[in-house]
Amino acid sequence: MIKEVEEMITQFNCVHVRWRNRQVLQLLLSNACIITIIISGHSGDIERIYIDKSFVAKLSCETICDAYLNDQFFIASHNNMSKIDFAYFTKRPPLNEAAKRLDKLSSWEPKIIQLDIPGPKGRRLDRCFSINTAQDMMLVWWSVGSGEAWPWSPMSSDRERANITILSINGPMIEVMTYFKTQCDPIHAHFSALQPHRIFTIEQELGSHGEVTVRACTYEVIRGQIQTVVVVNIPLKSTVVCLARNPQEDKLLLGLSDASLVLYDEHRKITLFTRAAIPPASISWHPTGNIFLVVSARADIQLFDRGFSSLDIQLVSEEHSPEKFFRISKFFKTSVTLRQISWCPFSPQSSEMMSTSMEAAFLSFSRGPVGLAQFHIGVRSKERFSTLEIVKEYIKNKQIDEAIRLLSSMNWDNESQSCYACLSAIVNHLLRIPLNSEREAQLEAALATFYAPKPPMLEATILEYREPISHLARRFFHHLLRYIRFDKAFLLAVDIGARDLFMDIHYMAADKGEAALAEVAKQRAEQIESNGLDTLDAFDVDPFLLATGQSHGRNNHRQSHEINESFLDQLPSSRHHPWQRDASQRNRNDDLHLNERNFPDLQDLGIHIDLISDYTAALSDQPDINSVQSLNNEVDEEEERAGRGGKVKVYHFGII
C-alpha cells in the first residue's frame, strides 16, 4: 500500500488537503484519487492508509487543477477547459455518521454533472476554488497574467472577460450566480471564514517604471450581485510571491520576491516591513492567528509571531541549539520543492495524546514525498500557541521588547482577557527586578498599550479594565518612588489624582531632603482633599470616553502636554537620573503617543500652573550637596547593575 502511494504522489500533484479530524488526513491528487491517512495521535506515524479511486477516469478530464471535498459533494476544475465537475452524494449517511466513517465514495452513489463557467475559451488557466462558511456558494477564480503566449482572439462579452465566478449550490443543484472582472489581475481570492457573503481578493498592478502596487479588495455578495466594499492600495518594492490572511481577517501578510515580508494591520491601519532569513515561497497562519510559518521553496521553515518577531526553532533534543530557521531539505537525498503547508485546525486536546501538547502541520512537496511536522509546545503548556504562552516564553528568555511588541499587536476590544493577562505578566515581571532606563521605558510602553491605544478602545472595554490596570499603574508609581524617580512619580500621581500618592511623595521627598518637592506634594494632597477629588466624583466618566473629536479637548491636552514638558525642562540636572540627563534632548522631540486623545485641563483637575512654577522655581535653588552625592551614588550603583542606559519616553496616562 505504501509503495503504491509513493508511486502516485510522484506522478500526480496534491491539489487538496482535508483534515477530517486530528488523526484523519485526506489527500486529493490531480488524477482525482483520494488517499486517506490515519495518523497516530502521539507519535505522528502512519497507522493505516486507504486509497479511493471512485472518481478516477469519471470526470470531464483526466487531470484536475483544483478540487474541494466534503461529506455532501465533490467539485473539481480543469485547466484546459472552462467547465467544472460537480458530484452530489445521493446516498450518503447522516452527517454525524459520515464524519466517522471511511467508506469509499462510490458507495454513496455520487451523481456527477458538468457546468460551463464564464471565462476565456481555449486558454490553459488554473481555476481555483474557495467555499464560504455556509457551503452554499463556491468562488472560482483564475489569473491570466501567466506570461504564456496565446493566439489573439476577440472577447465579445463580459462573460468571456470575467476572471471571478460565484456558483450557487443548493443540494444537488449548482448554477452560476454571478461573475465579474477585477480591475487588476488577481493573485489570490477567497471567501471570508467569518462572514459567508464576504470575498477578499489580492490584485497586483505593475507600473510602467517597475513600481508594484497591491490592491487588497473586499467585496460583498448582495442579492446575487457583487459589490465593492473597500479597497486598500499597498505600494511595494517588488512583486508578491505568496500571501496569507490571518484567521481573524484583520492582518494581511505578503511575501515578496526580495525576501521581504509585509504585514498590513487593518485594525491599526499600519503597514510593517521586515526581512526574512529565507526567500518566502509559502506562508501559513496557525489556526490561533498568533504565529505563522514562512517556508522557502527549498523547504526551509522560519517562524514568526503576530508582532513580527522571529521565533527560534530546533528539533526536539536534550541539547539547547535553537536556529533562526529550520532546514527540512537536509533529510532528503535529492532536492525537493515545497508546494504548500497546512496546519491541523483541530486542538491537540481533542485527541488521545500524551502529556505534551503538539501542533501538526502537513507538508506537501511537488511530485515528491509528503510529511508531517509536529511542533512540541511543552509539558506544562495547555493553551496551544496562545499569546500568553508566547509572552511567558519571552519573559523566561528575557525578551521583554518582543513581548511588548506582541502585546501591541493585540486588539483590546476582541481579546481583552488575553491582553490583560499579557500586560499583567509583563508589568509584574518588570516590577520584580531593579529599575533602570530600559525597564522604565518598557513599563511605560506596556502600560501605554491600554492608556494610549491606536485606534481608541470601546467604552465597555475601558470601563471593564480601567480599575485593575490602575492598580498596575499605582505599583509602577511606587516603583518609581522607590528608585527616587521623583519627576515621573509626580507626573504619574497627577494623572492618577489620588491624595495618598502625593502624601507618599511628600514623606519620601522629606526623607531625602527635597524640601521643595515635599511642600508642593503636600499642598497638592491638601488641595485634592479640600476639593473632594480623592474619589474623582467630578470625573465619573473616564477621560478616554470623552474623546468626542472636539478641538477643545485636544487643546486642553496639548496645553497639559506643554506644561509637563516645561516642568521637566525646568528641573535642575541634580534632580535627574543620569539616563534622563543623557536623553533629555532627545525626549523633547519624542511624541507622547496620546496626541489624538482628549484629556481634561490641569486647571479642571485643580492643578494650578503657579503650583508647578513654584515647585520648579524652588528646585532651581542649589540643592544640598550631601543629599545629591548620596542620590548619585545610589544611581551609579544601580546603573552598574543594570549594565546600560537607554532612551526615556514620557507617557501622560490621563486620569486612572
From TrEMBL:
Major localisation: membrane
A GO BP entry: nervous system development
InterPro entries assigned: Frtz, WD40_repeat_dom_sf
Alphabetical UniProt keywords: Cell membrane, Cell projection, Cilium, Cilium biogenesis/degradation, Cytoplasm, Cytoskeleton, Membrane, Repeat, WD repeat
Family in the record: Belongs to the WD repeat fritz family.
Name of the molecule in the record: WD repeat-containing and planar cell polarity effector protein fritz homolog isoform X2
Region (Disordered), start-end ranges: 572-595
PANTHER family noted in UniProt: HOMOLOC-13, WD REPEAT-CONTAINING AND PLANAR CELL POLARITY EFFECTOR PROTEIN FRITZ HOMOLOG
Name of one Pfam family that matches: Frtz
Residue stretches of biased makeup (Basic and acidic residues): 579-595
Subcellular location: Cell membrane; Cytoplasm, Cytoskeleton, Cilium axoneme
One annotated Gene Ontology cellular component of this protein: plasma membrane
